[in-house]
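Whiteboard transcription, Tuesday session. T.W. wrote the C-alpha cells on the left side:
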C-alpha cells in the first residue's frame, strides 16, 4: 500500500514538473472575442536604392521548374519603395483575437515555395503540399524548433509539420538549390506579411500601447512603439536600410 502511494506521489511530482516546464517554455496567448479594437496600418520601406533581384539558375527538372524565369525574393522592392515579404508583428501582446480558422499551407509549385513567407500558429499544423509531379525535399533551418529534413516524392501530395516555438525559419529544398522560403511561427495572431507595395494591416487589436516589430531577411529587424486607439487606426512606417 505504501509503495503504491509512493508511486502515485512520484507520478504527481512528474506531472507537476511537466506542467511547470510547459508553462514557462512557451508564451501563453489568450485568444477570444475583441470588442472595440483598433487597426494598425502601415508600410515597410527601403531607405536606399532598390537592388536588381538576382535571376536564379534553374538547372534541374527544367520541364517543371523552368517554365517561367525565377528571381530571388530576398529583397523585393516595389516602384513606391515598399518592401514585399517583410514580417510585421506585435511583440508584447498576451490577449486579443483568436487565431484565424483554416489551415496554413506551404505549397511547392513550379519549384517555388508559395507563398514565399508562410505564417503558422505555434503548435498548429503546417500543411506542406507538393503540387509538382517531381521529388522535393523540405529542409528547415531553425534555432528553437527541431529541424525538418523530409523527402516529399511526387506521390506524397501533402505532409504536415508543427512548430512549437515562435521563430522565423528558413526553408530550402535539397533537390533544387534555388528554392527558398520562410515559415513564421507565430505565438499570437497579430502577424502580417507585407504585400507588393510594402503595406500591411493588423486588425482587431485591443486598444493599448504596443511594441511592433518588422523582420526582413536581408535587412534585419527594427521595432517601434505604437498606440492603438479603441475603434480607431494607428499608422506605422518602417524604413529599413541595407547594411
Ligand atoms: Cu524542390
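and on the right, the sequence the group agreed on:
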Amino acid at each position: 500500500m505504501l509503495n503504491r502511494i509512493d508511486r502515485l506521489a512520484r507520478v504527481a511530482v512528474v506531472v507537476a514538473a511537466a506542467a511547470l516546464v510547459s508553462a514557462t517554455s512557451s508564451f501563453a496567448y489568450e485568444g477570444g472575442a475583441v470588442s472595440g479594437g483598433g487597426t494598425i496600418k502601415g508600410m515597410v520601406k527601403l531607405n536606399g536604392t532598390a537592388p536588381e533581384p538576382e535571376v536564379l539558375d534553374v538547372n534541374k527538372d527544367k520541364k517543371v521548374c523552368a517554365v517561367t524565369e525565377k528571381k530571388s525574393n530576398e529583397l523585393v522592392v516595389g516602384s513606391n519603395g515598399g518592401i514585399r515579404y517583410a514580417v510585421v508583428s506585435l511583440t508584447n501582446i498576451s490577449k486579443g483575437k483568436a487565431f484565424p480558422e483554416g489551415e496554413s499551407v506551404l505549397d511547392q509549385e513550379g519549384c517555388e515555395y508559395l507563398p514565399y513567407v508562410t505564417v503558422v500558429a505555434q503548435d498548429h499544423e503546417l500543411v506542406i503540399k507538393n503540387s509538382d509531379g517531381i521529388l522535393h525535399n523540405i529542409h528547415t533551418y531553425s534555432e528553437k524548433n527541431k529541424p525538418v529534413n523530409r523527402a516529399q516524392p511526387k506521390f506524397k501530395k501533402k505532409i504536415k509539420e508543427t512548430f512549437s516555438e515562435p521563430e522565423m525559419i528558413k526553408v530550402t529544398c535539397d533537390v533544387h538549390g534555388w528554392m527558398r522560403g520562410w515559415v513564421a511561427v507565430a505565438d499570437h495572431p497579430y502577424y502580417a506579411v507585407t504585400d507588393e507595395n510594402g503595406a500591411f494591416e493588423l486588425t482587431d487589436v485591443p486598444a493599448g500601447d504596443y511594441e511592433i516589430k518588422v523582420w526582413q531577411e536581408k535587412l534585419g529587424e527594427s521595432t517601434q512603439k505604437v498606440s492603438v486607439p479603441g475603434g480607431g487606426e494607428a499608422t506605422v512606417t518602417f524604413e529599413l536600410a541595407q547594411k
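Someone added at the bottom: The first helix runs from residue 2 to 25.
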